[in-house]
Design a protein that fits this description.
Rossmann fold; alpha/beta; five-stranded parallel sheet; four-stranded parallel sheet; binds N-carbamoyl-L-aspartate
Length: about 300
């Protein structure tokens, strides 16, 4: 049986193309299972997983929890606001205390980039990064690429435009790594102020004109402006941002082809995407959410299978 090359899923940068393909093949099986009347399998029975969330989350936390339940894992949930972290405990002490209760796997979301890497150097459990600040969000990128593969047959050779707040979005960086490893062409599009200076060194095209990006791409992944991570103003107003970079029906109608629309959620309707586009037949936003459960099942199954 093929095995995942890493003990942890810290970022897409660290994993191989074979790892990604293995996640997809495994997720194909799990997707078939969760569409059956009996959705539960015993694959993670006797495995205890701690979901440790130091940052808000709806979709990702529920998706991981559902994936764990479908795999029959035991689950403990922890969120920073209701914990001893607010009493001044360090990250390692918090996690070591949880591990002392015999936890095998940790799913962590944390505002500090690299928090999961740090943890992986200090504790024995398998660690899955559920988003570390502005850095990576590997399971989101895996489910995004899986959704493109499902919709268009494959990722190789497809043109994907990632639009919006490239600087502060962990979804952008993980998507760039995943799509490049799978042989897609990637373009990032947004205002100069939301574009990191090093970005072209990752082998992506850079475009500041949304219509040019839309005309070029097969898939547009619309990102949310990460206002909570912006300590200064990067553009005059949300209204101006959406005038220049918001995806609406008029812009889509001007294209001479159909493109696939994606969004990692949560959507700010009327800012990066209008409701008619988000809810249109071009959008695979809810397929992404559905695929998230199967992809996370695959990741946890593969990591647990390493002994
Ligand atoms: C993303 C995140 O948290 O990075 N959301 C998610 O995981 N569903 C994207 C975002 O918050 O904009």
């Amino acid at each position: 049986m093929k095995k995942f090359s890493q003990r942890h899923l810290l970022g897409i940068k660290e994993i191989t193309t074979d790892d990604i393909e293995l996640v997809f093949e495994t997720a194909d099986n799990f997707k078939a299972i969760i569409n059956r009347p009996i959705k539960k399998v015993p694959s993670l029975r006797d495995i205890t997983v701690a979901n440790i969330f130091f940052e808000n989350s709806t979709r990702t936390r529920i998706s991981f929890e559902l994936a764990q339940k479908r795999l029959s894992a035991d689950i403990v949930n922890f969120s920073a606001s209701s914990s001893s972290v607010s009493k001044g405990e360090t990250l390692i002490d918090t996690v070591n205390n949880i591990l002392a209760m015999k936890v095998d796997m940790v799913v962590m979301r944390h505002p500090a980039p690299g928090a999961c890497v740090f943890l992986s150097q200090h504790i024995g459990a398998n660690i899955i990064n559920a988003g570390d600040g502005t850095h990576e969000h590997p399971t989101q990128a895996l489910l995004d690429a899986f959704s493109i593969r499902e919709k268009l047959g494959s990722v190789r050779g497809k043109k994907v435009a990632i639009v919006g707040d490239i600087t502060h979005s962990r979804v952008a960086l993980s998507n760039i790594y995943a799509l490049k490893k799978l042989g897609a062409e990637v373009m990032v599009c947004g205002p100069t102020t939301l574009m990191p200076k090093y970005i072209s060194s990752l082998g992506v095209k850079v475009e500041h004109d949304l219509m040019k990006a839309l005309n070029w791409c097969d898939v547009a992944n619309m990102l949310r402006i990460q206002l909570e991570r912006q300590d200064i103003k990067y553009f005059p107003s949300l209204r101006e941002y959406s005038m220049l970079y918001g995806l609406n029906k008029e812009r889509l109608d001007k294209l001479d082809k159909e493109i696939v629309i994606m969004h990692p959620g949560p959507i700010n309707r009327g800012v990066e995407i209008t409701s008619d586009v988000a809810d249109s037949k071009h959008s695979i936003i809810l397929n992404q959410v559905e695929n998230g459960v199967a992809v996370r099942m695959a990741v946890m199954f593969l990591l647990a299978g390493q002994g």
